[in-house]
Design the sequence.
């Protein structure tokens, strides 16, 4: 028998209530569940009939593995106690235990209660290929309607996502969003949560994209400051080159430190909306090239400075 930890032993032996076991992959959750089942089956005082077990998994492979492990563990217990009528009876009932995937279990419930629900008895379960075809068909019909409406918003979206005359990137994204949303209990809330980050009424300090832009701008500033510091320190060691370039380097460093202060202040997320907008649009101009030239000139000056020093040393 394995050496169970205190927590595993508690999960195996707990009775009279619901328990929740949360553990990382490979930590022995399946082994604990199998042992818990065996302990319930061989309990002389209050045994659980094997045909009343309900064990649901996510995949068919996990279902097959669970059935095999429970069967082998039960056979091992019978080998230890060959005269036990309880264990022999449990072995006979085990094939009738409900050990299946979640979707298979739900399908059994529906079929067993068709007389109480408004579903045709000849219904079927979609496989992944059928579901993909239906999703593609639904998206195609919706896209056709939107193309006919030709709204400015849809035209802009197609212009961003489509590749020439092919809009498959957009339709694939729609299907992916649908599939991802169906994994949540409230799909509409999940989709709304995704779209809410694009609303412009959110304070910039709390906006996902605003933070990304500001972080990128701050990294660019720190990089240019590092170059300026290197050039400034090297200029001090070389009076001739320092006299020629130190003023410009010092000016660049001063300007960059001013921008860095604003970005740092923005990260406090306590400033007014007006200051946030100023920092945001300055960052956008940096990203689009309006002020990016000063950063590039700093990097170019650094390279030029190193070349001059190298030639002089030669």
Sequence:
């Amino acid at each position: 028998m394995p050496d169970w930890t205190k927590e595993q032993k508690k999960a195996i032996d707990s009775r009279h209530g619901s328990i929740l076991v949360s553990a990382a992959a490979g930590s022995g959750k399946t082994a604990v569940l199998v042992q818990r089942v065996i302990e319930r089956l061989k309990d002389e005082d209050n045994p659980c009939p094997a045909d009343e077990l309900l064990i649901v998994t996510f995949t068919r492979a996990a279902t097959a593995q669970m059935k095999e492990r429970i069967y082998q563990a039960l056979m091992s217990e019978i080998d230890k106690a060959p005269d036990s009528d309880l264990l022999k009876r449990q072995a006979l009932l085990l094939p009738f235990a409900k050990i299946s995937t979640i979707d298979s279990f739900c399908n059994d419930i529906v079929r067993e209660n068709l007389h109480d629900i408004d579903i045709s008895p000849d219904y079927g379960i979609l496989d992944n290929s059928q579901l993909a075809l239906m999703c593609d068909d639904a998206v195609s019909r919706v896209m056709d309607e939107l193309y006919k409406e030709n709204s400015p918003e849809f035209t802009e979206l197609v212009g961003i996502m489509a590749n020439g005359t092919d809009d498959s990137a957009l339709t694939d994204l729609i299907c992916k969003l649908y599939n991802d949303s169906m994994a949540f209990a409230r799909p509409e809330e999940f989709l709304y949560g995704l779209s809410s980050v694009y609303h412009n009424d959110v304070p910039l300090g709390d906006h996902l994209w605003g933070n990304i832009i500001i972080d990128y701008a701050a990294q660019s500033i720190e990089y240019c400051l590092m170059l300026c510091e290197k050039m400034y320190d090297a200029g001090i060691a070389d009076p001739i080159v320092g006299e020629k370039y130190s003023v410009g380097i010092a000016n660049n460093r001063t300007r960059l430190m001013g921008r860095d202060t604003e970005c740092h202040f923005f990260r406090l997320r306590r400033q007014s909306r007006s200051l946030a907008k100023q920092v945001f649009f300055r960052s956008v101009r940096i990203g689009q090239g309006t002020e990016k030239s000063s950063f590039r000139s700093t990097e170019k000056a650094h390279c030029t400075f190193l070349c001059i020093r190298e030639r002089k040393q030669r």
Q: What stands out?
A: The first helix runs from residue 6 to 13. Residues 259-295 have pLDDT under 50 and may be disordered. The longest strand covers residues 54-57. The CA atoms of residues 93 and 238 lie 90 Å apart.
